[in-house]
Specification:
By secondary structure, the protein is an alpha+beta fold. The chain has a domain of 269 residues: Beta-galactosidase, Chain A, domain 5 (Distorted Sandwich), CATH 2.70.98.10. Helix content is 21%, strand content 33%. It is built from 16 helices and 36 strands. Strands 6, 7, 8, 9, 10, 11, 12, 14, 15, 16, 17, 20 and 21 form a 13-stranded antiparallel β-sheet that branches. A hairpin with a 3-residue loop joins strand 29 and strand 30. Helix 8 runs parallel beside helix 9. The longest helix is centred in the first third of the chain and has 16 residues. The radius of gyration is 25 Å and the shape is globular. The termini are far apart.
């Protein structure tokens, strides 16, 4: 027996015994799949029953117990009884660079090692397992390589993620299909369960949404999916996860577009979305781009001159439906122009309360002030009963092309499309259809009441943002939501907003009618930096912004819409977070804390100065004043040239923004 093979066998046996596995496992591949830096390793095995499994170690220590792989297709079972169809491929180095305007880092570099394992079912049907291991995580997908014009259907995916004992979870429950106001669930708008034992059944009985965050000892794992095409449903983690083993679950049968399919179906060849696990420290999680690294490259041609991320004024969150009128929207165009913002969003009911002809006047008026107009649409068909209009104008390709042509003639820049029906394959295809058909018109797109983007902003560069979160609008609905806002906002840089743009619609500096805000104005201001969105729709209205100090208004004018880099400086999910984002040679450092008592923070800035090779630093700091209510700010210019740290005392539920240049 060659020495190399003997050593691999010994390592495999040692690994199996470490996990308490039976040693009668046959290796799928003679060489484990290892990250470029050698710290992460995926161990692939095939049980004596032909069931494929994988496990993951970091620095030689297990971080994921042996977990299941496989699918069940209508004509073949790929979860058991498998055998090798050919030797595994030699490791292939993945080295890709891409530009992304709508997330946390403009220029991205993805490096990973890939191994493909060819398998076949008992009946001879083929399945390839494709694994990629990068320095920040593990990803895999299934590929059916054969040719067939027959539509094949998947009934189940057996993929699981088996966490180590005593792991903890920070996870958002999936809402039950067709529940909630006007049957508009699910739309990824629930609160996160924080620091619960891994394996806890989902709160609402419908599973857990992606991304899901876990901690095992000092290792953090963020589980999600990417590269969701029109030929698969959106997935989630199943309701029950005994012994901390979370399984993939498909969409509810009710989450469909008309009579279209909920479960995945396609002709062959066919590839599933990527399942991914970011693995490492909290810094690894927050700074990772794995969710876009694995997304498909641009699928449609879009005029690059229209791809302009920016900021937007918006009347609806604080003024509501009655103020979607010509005069109010004209005032919000003036507001955007005065703030130097690129867009103004005109929300629901514009078709009846303004009309197409007057909309054309607003577009012309905005153009004269350098402000482009976005308009709202209701996506809905029979899947919900949300009444807001325009409704039903985008359901068929013929109708939406006609509507798009009309809007293009008016000079509209983009659409906010609301109230989708879940994650069934046919509903996912509807998203792809809308994005594909909008591209030739140069429309920028924002989806609300929607699923998770899963990296679509890379595949469709004109997709500026998606909601997919319990955003600020809920805070305006009742006090209970306002009470939970500080902890909720402190979760999002670690979960929902890690990979994908998020239209939370942040920042109310002044007041919300009939609601006592629990966050300070410093907290609200920090969200302009902490949350990323291709188009950032600010909730504050002109009257509230006018009350803010000039330094605050200046910051709201200048905050970049495209970021070159991000650094995680400190934090704990749901408790506090401090991030630094760079645009050019200028760093914006922002922090918030959710606690009811003051928090002392020490911010290490040494890495930021080194990253821009700065020999000296000018600093502007905006914090909450020691006392006072809304709009009580304190501004200063700390001298940071002689020190690399900033010490602050954050007020309860307070925040800060530091600008370094």
């Amino acid at each position: 027996m060659p020495a190399r093979f003997l050593r691999i066998l010994q390592l495999g046996l040692a690994f199996a015994m470490t996990y308490g596995l039976p040693v009668r496992l046959t290796a799928i591949d003679a060489t484990p799949v290892t990250s470029p830096d050698g710290r992460l390793t995926v161990h692939l095995t095939l049980t004596k029953d032909g069931a494929p499994t994988y496990a993951v170690s970091r620095d030689g220590r297990p971080v994921l117990r042996p977990s299941r792989l496989g699918l069940v297709r209508d004509d073949a079972d790929f979860s058991t009884g498998l055998r090798r169809a050919a030797p595994a491929s030699e490791p292939r180095a993945i080295d890709e660079r891409y530009e992304l305007l709508t997330s946390k880092r403009r220029h991205n570099h993805y490096q990973a090692n890939e191994v493909v394992v060819p398998l076949q079912s008992a009946g001879g049907a083929r399945l390839d397992l494709c694994f990629r291991v990068s320095n920040d995580g593990v990803a895999f997908r299934y590929v059916f390589p054969e040719q067939s014009d027959r539509v094949h259907r998947l009934t189940r995916e057996t993929t699981s993620f088996h966490l180590l004992p005593d792991s903890r979870a920070w996870v958002q429950p999936m809402a039950v299909a067709k529940s909630g106001w006007s049957e508009t669930n699910p739309s990824y708008e629930e609160y996160y369960e924080r620091d619960v034992p891994a394996g806890t059944p989902s709160t609402l009985g419908a599973g857990w949404v992606f991304p899901a965050l876990f901690r095992s000892g000092d290792t953090w794992l963020l589980v999600s999916e990417a590269g969701l095409g029109r030929d698969y449903c959106g997935s989630r983690l199943a309701h029950e996860s005994p012994d901390g083993e979370y399984s993939i679950a498909f969409a509810d049968a009710r989450e469909t577009f008309g009579d279209g399919p909920a479960l995945p179906e396609s002709t062959l060849p066919w590839a599933t979305p990527w399942r991914l696990i970011v693995i490492g420290s909290l810094r690894t999680v927050v700074e990772s781009t794995l969710g876009t690294d694995l997304a498909a490259p641009p699928a449609v041609a879009v005029d690059p001159t229209v791809l302009e991320p920016g900021k937007a004024s918006w009347s609806w969150p604080l003024l509501g439906d009655p103020n979607t009128t010509f005069d109010v929207q004209k005032r919000f165009i003036d507001y955007a122009a005065e703030m130097g913002w690129r867009y103004c969003l005109i929300d629901a009911l514009w078709d009846t309360q303004i009309g197409y002809d007057k909309l054309a006047e607003l577009v012309t008026y905005g153009a004269g002030k350098g402000v482009k107009i976005l308009v709202w649409y209701n996506s809905a068909g029979a899947w919900n009963s949300a009444p807001q209009t325009p409704r039903g104008k985008l359901l068929t390709r013929e109708d939406r092309l006609a509507e798009f042509a009309r809007l293009k003639q008016l000079g509209v820049a983009g659409l906010k499309i609301d109230f989708f029906g879940g994650d069934g394959q046919s509903m996912i295809a509807y998203y792809h259809d809308l994005l594909t058909d909008a591209a030739p018109f140069g429309f920028l797109i924002n989806f609300h009441g929607a699923t998770l983007p899963r990296g679509w902003q890379r595949t469709y560069p004109h997709l500026m943002t998606m909601e997919s979160i319990r955003g600020l609008e809920f805070i305006t609905f009742d006090q209970a939501n306002a009470d939970r806002a500080p902890a909720h906002a402190s979760m999002l840089p670690f979960t929902r907003n890690v990979f994908d743009p998020m239209d939370f619609t942040p920042v109310v500096l002044d007041q919300i009618r009939n609601i006592e805000r629990r966050t300070t104005s410093g907290f609200e201001l920090a969200l302009a930096v902490l949350f990323t969105s291709g188009i950032q729709h600010y909730a504050e209205i002109p009257e509230g912004m006018a009350k803010a100090p000039e330094a605050v208004r200046d910051l709201m004018r200048e905050v970049p819409s495209v970021w070159d880099d991000v650094r995680f400086l400190d934090g704990m999910p749901g408790e506090y977070v401090i991030l630094a984002r760079r645009s050019g040679t200028r760093w914006y450092v922002a922090g918030i804390q959710a606690g009811d008592t003051p928090r002392e923070v020490v911010v290490d800035l040494s890495g930021l100065r080194a990253a821009t090779a700065a020999t000296s630093t000018r600093a502007r700091l905006i914090t909450d004043a020691a006392e006072g209510g809304n709009l009580a700010f304190a501004t200063s210019t700390p001298d940071l040239n002689a020190q690399a740290t900033l010490r602050l005392t954050l007020r309860p539920r307070g925040g800060f923004v530091l600008v370094l240049e």
